[in-house]
Amino acid sequence: MSGSRGFRALLVAALGAVLVFLTVPIVGVFVNVPPGELLASLAQEGALEALLLSLQTTALALVIILVVGTPAAYLLATRSFRGRSVAVTLVELPLVLPPAVAGIALLAALGPEGILGGLLIDAGVQLVFQTAGVVVALVFVASPFYIRQAQAAFASIDPTLLAASRTLGAGEGRTFLAVAIPTARAGLLSGMALAWGRALGEFGATLIFAGSFQGITQTAPLAILARFGIDFTGALALSAVLVALSATILLSVKLLAGSPAFGGVAAR
Amino acid sequence: MRTIPLLATIALTLVACGGEEESASGSEAGGAPSEPAEEITVSAAASLTTAFEAYDERTPVTERFSFAGSDALAAQIRQGATPDVYAAANTELPQALFEEGEVGEPTVFVTNTLVIAVPTDSQIASIDDLTESDVDLVIGTEDVPFGSYTRTVLDRLPAGERDAILANVRSEEPDVNSTVGKLTQGAGDASFTYSSDVAAASGRLRDIELPAELQPDVAYAVAVVEGAENPKAAQAFIDGLVSGAGAQVLQEAGFRPPPAG
Amino acid sequence: MALLRVEAHTRLGDFDLALDVEVGAGACLALAGPSGAGKTTTLRVAAGLIRPDRGNVTCGDEVWLDTERGVNLPPERRRCGYVFQDYALFGHLRAWQNVAYPLRGIPRAQRRRTAHELLERFGLASRADAHPRTLSGGERQRVALARALAREPRALLLDEPLSALDTRTRTSAGRELAAILREAAVPTLLVTHDFAEAALFGDEVGVIDGGRVVQRGTPSELAMAPASAFVADFTGAVVLIGEARPGPDGLTVVNLDAAEATVLSTDQGHGRVAVSVFPWEIALLPAGSDPVGSAQNRLAAEVVSVTVVGNRVRVGLDAGQPITAEVTQAGVEGLALAPGVKVAASWKAAATRLAEA
Predict the structure, then answer these.
(1) What is the pLDDT of residue A259?
(2) Do the domain assignments include residue C231?
(3) pTM of the predicted model over 0.95
(4) What CATH number labels B114-209?
């Protein structure tokens, strides 16, 4: 059966290539500079501020995405209505936009000269150069990551569970909160991890829409860019921390999703 | 047979994306005949975008450009990237790279003027107006040439004025293009950038000259990178910048000739 | 008196569902039929999960659905207990929490107590804290039932209550369920594809095919006097098709299509008929033996299969048409029955039912 064996060898080689390609850059981040220097660079002015700003803005963006995106995903998953496929495509659009394009689009829509710019100014809301603008950019680029996962998770719920809830006296709202969300928990959490990861790494749209200013809009990725030109060690240090942070988030969410304590199915 | 339209869509998308990269520009821009021309890669300061692209159309050689902040480009070269040519918006960066053995001896090829750029309908008329409290100012980062020139200018002001202006800074951009982009979109009231950028903004911005005593010496230097694939073509490119089609194009774009000698 | 009435007319794939059934308080109507006949749809219409093109659902004095007057109560407003085929227990909740789910508007401590009490009545007190995935099939069925009964529904709907259970559990579960239904004293509508199951639970059985109830009656009425070949076949009888005409002594003579034989029946009938007889009424004799007694039907047949089912043996035979006889183990040994052996199948004219073909 050399045919099967050859094929299996090919599969292993492919996975090996993927793993090497994805891990070498990450290893490079940690290996190129001695740990002592890494830590010293972190203590430098602006580094911790950037990390804190990243955490704050991504957390806020995530809350918005969860609160608005979850019901939206539920509707997309459980109902068919006219224009549904158009809605799904629109939700996925930011996924395929280059970040710079996303930033320009946001400027064109919400910037002072944008379509809604006048309305925002009248309402006293300024987004450009403000932390709020960073949050808006993050929500824009990261929400499709969550909504698609959430939609898939809701769509894979056994419909008889939802029907059962209705026959037991629960209206649509209670069914959504008490049955749909807990049942889809694993998929929702993994969507959250993806969205959070994307938001942490967001850089192009933020720079163009909100700008880059320490403490206000300079998130960790932007701080890394600012350091790149002159202080490569500093850039590496921040990069290392960002990688560690993202990995921690991803792992925690995976653990949460698999933990029986959360009603998840134990690791398959 | 839905696979055929699907494959066609994928192919078209890839082609479109290939041409869309932020800073690299296609080198077959002009109507040059398709000879198997020599090709060089050029890392150049963002403020040279319009001028170099025009220069490219007038040379027989095909250029692949990478436009970004001069400091970011220098960092790439230090990390091992080897474009054929490195053109920076100051003399310090090429000089430092020369001393590190990364590039050949730099040549100053053009100078520029730092100005205050504002939207055409702005009320701002002088550098003093920048001290007003409701002005949103966009400048470069500390390390990118146009940002360091800006700080040079501000340091020449009385401390009070300088602090008032710095307090109005809302964003520190990594290159001039994103700076100008912000202003033309109404995000930001003013910025310190080059007169050539205002010229390139097609009439959406106007410039306010800085008083002569504040004006920094803005000199651009260019060098052949050590380990370049096409050092001869690279040198020819540089020669054209100093006294050929390149020099002409730079003048048309609003740059000023290098100091004599 | 709380009466559940379900009337539904709606398009169902290739055919139309046209149904109008009533169930009295404390009674159980079992709708039995092949899959796709519209059984589950009927339940869903009753519960409010599907809205038929035209229909009426009333429970006692409550109008749950009236398409003409535009009344359509959503499922949560109908006090209707529904036990789904695969039970639909909420995996993220413990057993008692599942049972407590429908209990609203009462203090939490009381909800917990009530749920535990219900589980105790169903013999599941020790499993109250378990998650559904650790429960056995039978336990899950009881939790689903307890949950459906928790808020004292005005009607009960069950979808194939035993089909998700393995054969061993089925018998005991079936007995328990029958007892619970009698105790519950609300109109119950139950659907199944198995006539024996229907007979076990239903005070009455409605055979449903192609969206219509083709016959309704007590299980024995259906077995004794099937209205059509379909009903006869569905109730487990052997069915032979033939041409009937009146014969001597008030008997009817039927010329069978597939065999060169005639059979006699005490039923009246003429024209195309379906002759039905139950397997356990068929006796097997050595081939060529003389008929014993009068009014006996005889068919020559060849054994095709011999299957032991419990303490009986089902013998599949070919008599031009397939027939099945149910005999004792002793009978099998006495005749040395094995595939290929030729025998005579014999049964009484009085045990021969006639129905429309």
Answers:
(1) 67
(2) no
(3) no
(4) 3.40.190.10
